[in-house]
From TrEMBL, chain A:
InterPro entries: Ald_Oxase/Xan_DH_a/b, Ald_Oxase/Xan_DH_a/b_sf, Ald_Oxase/xanthine_DH-like, AldOxase/xan_DH_MoCoBD1, AldOxase/xan_DH_MoCoBD2, AldOxase/xan_DH_Mopterin-bd_sf
Species this chain originates from: Actinomycetospora chlora
Keywords, sorted A to Z: Molybdenum, Oxidoreductase
Name of the protein in question: Molybdopterin-dependent oxidoreductase
Domain called Aldehyde oxidase/xanthine dehydrogenase a/b hammerhead: residue spans: 29-139
Source organism phylogeny: Bacteria, Bacillati, Actinomycetota, Actinomycetes, Pseudonocardiales
Any Pfam family the entry gives: MoCoBD_2
Automatic annotation (TrEMBL), chain B:
Domain 2Fe-2S ferredoxin-type: start-end pairs: 5-81
Record-linked PROSITE patterns: 2FE2S_FER_1, 2FE2S_FER_2
The keyword Oxidoreductase belongs to this UniProt entry's keyword annotation: yes
InterPro entries (UniProt xref): 2Fe-2S-bd (IPR002888), 2Fe-2S-bd_dom_sf (IPR036884), 2Fe-2S_ferredoxin-like_sf (IPR036010), 2Fe-2S_ferredoxin-type (IPR001041), 2Fe2S_fd_BS (IPR006058), Beta-grasp_dom_sf (IPR012675), Diverse_Oxidoreductases (IPR051452)
Record keyword Hydrolase present: no
Keywords: 2Fe-2S, Iron, Iron-sulfur, Metal-binding, Oxidoreductase
Organism: Actinomycetospora chlora
Regions annotated as coiled coil: none
Protein name: (2Fe-2S)-binding protein
Length: 808, 170
């Protein structure tokens, strides 16, 4: 852990430029190699039979008709699959077992009850339709509050209650702050479950070798080089006989970290017949049963303020509906406590969380990963406080912002914020939004009976996670040590001077090749287009947690710079030896190794490459042959939690910040919300590549528009059936819902990272929902509406207007 | 299972004489029988538009058409756009210039939809693009850069046409 000294951005040549994206040509021409494009000789095609019921006992399964269908090779029930594969890893301490194909009991609609492998997908689906399953229905738990009742049917017999986890932690003097507060603002809020829904579903191609007892697995999973042993455990194969091969991924947004269900089902089918099998989820498999789902929270929150508006303490009581299993345990709350107090100097925090199991698909991770509803409730509280105390909402934020000279700043939970200048971001956002003009427009439209609203939110984007957050809320002792959650890069320079980088993370829709190219170019002074980048499979030894928690550019640039510098230093020594000079006197400029101050004496990359590969001449001081280095970059700044959890340590310390100002017009009659304009100022430290960061932020904002206005999993109140199984019912934003988004950057570089970069992958979605909520609020203020539930579907907006009228 | 159906179909300029099951979707014929993996399936029910190809110059969701319906038809897919020497089509150039793609999974559908639009409307504006591609879903980009890409492609193609014409005159 050290503070990195960095030159100012302007002195860099490639870092900070909108360098052309290396990934594009293959993506634009249909040659990228997604999982659906993998075809192996003799490959079969899988399909899955899903439970139509939310909660039922499986009385019997008759597969005879399916097995008799020509072209069908394997039919697996849950019991048969259990002979071949083990339960999926659950990162929880509680006894909640999850199998990819249900055994004896289904616990959510869409849970797999059987799988088929056949000579083509059509036949596999025909076979699924011929499997006869007899169910005995059990009561469906849909409402998480009702599921908490001791008398409720239990989702798992192994648990005493559907409240699978509860913990309440105080940091600072919460009761004291509540007692001495001038005003305590209370807000309840509901954040419904939404899904990542990448356009490509999850999939795998498994090839089991029964003679070597080895498995080759292609997939669009991310964690192939982070937790390969977890996959080996499911597949009952020794870790050194499992080879996981990455594919280009058609979007993830957090939903494809593990995809253990797909890996397990595909692996079981391949093991059952000893042939390669491809299983790609169809859309309903993905919506109903993947790791797609984000948080599903009910908040009851309080913010204590002094008379002048100083924020003193925060209380967050949360019920979170985790669905039928507890896959990543309460990791989404570990995540949320990285930034529960936002950009404000709030001295104390009570975090009381109940994780409840119901008959819905289990939570996974979705862009924001738990901090998304956290930003929503905090900014709702701040807006409500402004309203109740009669303080302008901008002024209230200003009074409470952490100031630039207070960094690194430790928040009550123990996490560290590295750097920032929140007021500068706010000021610039107000400036580019042209607020006076919009206030005039608002007045003008109100006179016509129309409702224009101006939203505002100032939020954090914690980035660069340390996976201790997955478990540190357990117990009073460390169940596991802290983890640095590393990332690796290998760089080799060949005999002709060609530079190749090999990285452990897959291409998930972001731009790892471009980033690596920029960093290598920066270090050697060569053109980034000359650098080739390859993806490592799980046999390479690369450790890589890949994209997630807005970490990949931070970690990959650290790994790449480290490897590049190691190779470059060796090349300097090789060149110095060849030129009979002291290495101290040799530098690398524009890809040329030359004498400092005497540029006439020099060697090219190719000359040094050939020398290093072929001509270790055996003289004293000659370098060992070869030019290759692997650099594993550990998390640059983290500290372990204390045993009593009074300090969770620094676990998510690179903190980006943004201010969003959306302008909406709301029709209270129809409930339609139209986005008229959208202004953003973003600070993610040093911007590695402005065009690509803009793409991430705007893409995230549009997902946030979905979260604000339309995206929601709906389950039938009575029967628990999934009412949104496809993209016809679960609506994603289209071109028609998106306004022109105006975006600017301010840069406060991180003192912890290489080049000062911070994360930018999740910020758009972390801020937009709460910003749009405040805009709708502002629009409907004359009607007395207060938004406390997302998404603001037309039905809900009409309902909110009606409720407000009733209250009056 | 009913007998296979014989179809003669031209795909990206190559003529094929094929036997196919009556229920085979065009998307599956392209991907599985002709090994043209650039056409992607996102939803298999016509909602997302990732599988859009041109059938006799009309943008068509290949997941909603049976191959057997297309006897005598001419189909263009994303593989038809770039040159064998690696020269990108102006639409592809515009998408990379304007960063109109991230994961690339919806991109072939966007490109083929844009191709149809640009053959009808050489220099489209934002409204034209929204009308033509408003039914194609992208989960990464937020669409802003896709709209820009298509407008830029129109300009690039017009410029290219003008320079070709002036070349002919010279």
């Amino acid at each position: 852990m050290s503070i990195v000294e960095e030159p100012v951005t302007g002195t860099r040549r490639w870092v900070g430029q909108s360098v052309a994206r290396k990934e594009d040509p293959k993506l634009l021409t249909g040659r990228a190699g997604y999982i659906g494009d993998v075809v192996l000789p003799g490959m079969l095609y899988g399909a899955v039979l899903k439970s139509p019921h939310a909660h039922a006992k499986i009385v019997s399964i008759d597969t005879s008709e399916a097995e008799a269908l020509p072209g069908v090779v394997v039919v697996l029930t849950g019991a048969a699959a259990a002979e071949l594969v083990d339960p999926m890893p659950a990162f929880c301490a509680e006894p909640v077992e999850q199998r990819a194909i249900a055994v004896d009991r289904v616990r959510y609609p869409g849970e797999a009850v059987a799988a088929v492998a056949a000579t083509d997908r059509y036949t596999a689906e025909d076979a699924c339709a011929k499997i006869r399953v007899e169910y005995e229905l059990l009561p469906a738990l849909v409402d998480p509050v009702a599921a908490m009742e001791p008398s409720a049917t239990r989702v798992h017999e192994t648990l005493d209650s559907n409240v699978v986890f509860h913990r309440s932690l105080d940091w600072g003097d919460v009761d004291g702050d509540l007692a001495r507060a001038h005003t305590v603002v209370r807000a309840k809020a509901r954040w419904h479950r939404m899904g990542a829904h990448p356009i490509e579903t999850a999939g795998a191609v498994a090839s089991w070798d029964p003679y070597g007892q080895s498995m080759t697995m292609y997939s669009n999973s991310n964690f192939i080089n982070f937790l390969p042993w977890a996959f080996a455990g499911i597949l009952r194969v020794s870790t050194n006989r499992l080879r996981m091969i990455p594919c280009t991924v058609g979007g993830s947004f957090g939903s494809k970290h593990l995809i253990t269900k797909v890996v397990s089902i595909t692996g079981a089918l391949s093991k059952a017949c000893g042939r390669p099998v491809q299983y790609l989820e169809d859309r309903t498999d993905n919506v109903a049963a993947n790791d797609n789902v984000g948080c599903d929270r009910i908040y009851d929150a309080e913010l204590a303020l002094a008379e002048d508006g100083e924020m003193l303490g925060l209380v967050l009581r949360i019920i979170d509906d985790y669905g039928a299993y507890f896959q990543f345990a309460h990791g989404q709350h570990g995540n949320a406590v990285a930034q529960p107090v936002g950009p404000y100097r709030i001295g104390s925090l009570r975090y009381d969380v109940s994780c409840v199991l119901t008959n819905k698909v289990q939570q996974g991770f979705f862009r924001g990963a738990g901090a998304d509803p956290g930003n929503f409730i905090l900014e709702r509280l701040v807006d409500k406080a402004a309203l109740e105390m009669g303080i302008d909402r901008v002024e209230l934020r200003r009074r409470n912002f952490i100031q630039p000279d207070q960094f690194p700043y430790k928040i009550p939970t123990g996490n560290i914020y590295d750097s920032g200048d929140y007021e500068a971001v706010l000021d610039r956002a107000l400036e580019i939004a042209g607020l006076d003009r919009w206030r005039e427009e608002q007045e003008r439209l109100r006179a016509e009976g129309r409702y224009l609203g101006i939203g505002l939110a100032s939020c954090q984007e914690r980035s660069g996670y340390n996976a201790s957050e997955w478990w540190f809320l357990y117990g009073d002792e460390a169940p596991l040590p802290a983890t640095s959650t590393p990332e690796s890069c290998k760089i080799d320079v060949d005999a002709m001077g060609g530079v190749r980088a090999t990285i452990g993370c897959p291409l998930w829709g972001n731009s790892p090749e471009t980033v690596v190219g920029q960093v290598v170019a920066e270090e050697f002074g060569i053109d980034p287009s000359s650098v080739s980048v390859a993806y490592a499979d799980s046999t390479s030894g690369a450790i890589s947690a890949g994209p997630g928690g807005s970490r990949v550019t931070i970690m990959l640039s650290g790994a790449t710079r480290g490897a590049a510098r190691t190779v470059k230093d060796k090349m300097i020594r090789v060149a110095a030896h060849a030129m009979e000079m002291d290495p101290e006197d040799v530098e690398c400029v524009d890809g040329v190794f030359r004498a400092k101050g005497a540029p006439g004496t020099s060697m090219t990359m190719a000359e040094v490459g050939m020398r290093a590969h072929l001509f270790n001449d055996g003289t004293e001081g000659a370098e060992s042959s070869g030019l290759v280095a692997v650099h594993t970059y550990d998390h640059p700044y983290f500290t372990p939690p204390t045993a009593d959890r009074s300090d969770l340590g620094a676990f998510y310390p690179m903190v980006s910040h943004a201010c969003h100002i959306p302008i909406v017009e709301v029709d209270p009659e129809t409930g339609h919300v139209e986005l008229r304009a959208y202004y953003v100022v973003n600070d993610c430290g040093t911007v590695m590549n402005p065009a690509l960061v803009e793409g991430q932020v705007i893409g995230g904002i549009v997902q946030g528009i979905g979260a604000a206005l339309m995206e929601e999993y709906r389950y039938g109140d009575a029967d628990g059936k999934l009412e949104t199984p496809t993209l016809r019912e679960y609506l994603l934003p289209s071109m028609h819902e998106v306004p022109e988004i105006v975006l600017e950057h301010l840069e406060t570089p991180s003192p912890f990272t290489e080049y000062g970069v911070k994360g930018a992958g999740e910020g758009g979605r972390l801020v937009a929902p709460t910003a749009i909520a405040s805009a709708v609020d502002d629009a409907l203020r004359p009607l007395g509406v207060w938004v406390d539930e997302l998404p603001m579907t037309p039905e809900r907006v009409v309902g909110m207007v009606a409720d407000a009228q009733e209250r009056r | 299972m009913p007998d296979k159906v014989r179809i003669r179909i031209t795909v990206n300029g190559t003529r094929h004489d094929l036997l196919t099951e009556p229920r085979t979707l065009l998307a599956d014929l392209l991907r599985n029988d002709l090994a043209l993996a650039g056409t992607h399936l996102g939803c298999e029910q016509g909602v997302c538009g990732a599988c859009t190809v041109l059938v006799d110059d009309v943008a068509t969701r290949s997941c909603l058409v049976f191959a057997a319906q297309l006897d005598g038809a001419s189909v263009r897919t994303v593989e038809s756009l770039a040159g064998a020497d690696g020269t990108l089509h102006p639409i592809q150039q515009a998408f990379t210039q304007e960063h109109g793609l991230q994961c690339g999974f919806c991109t072939p559908g966007m490109l083929m939809g844009a191709c149809e639009l640009l053959e009808r409307v050489p220099e489209p504006d934002r409204e034209d693009v929204e009308e033509a591609l408003g039914g194609n879903l992208c989960r990464c980009t937020g669409y802003q850069n896709i709209v820009r890409s298509v407008c830029t492609a129109g300009r690039l193609m017009s410029e290219q046409q003008q320079s070709e014409q002036s070349g002919v005159r010279a």
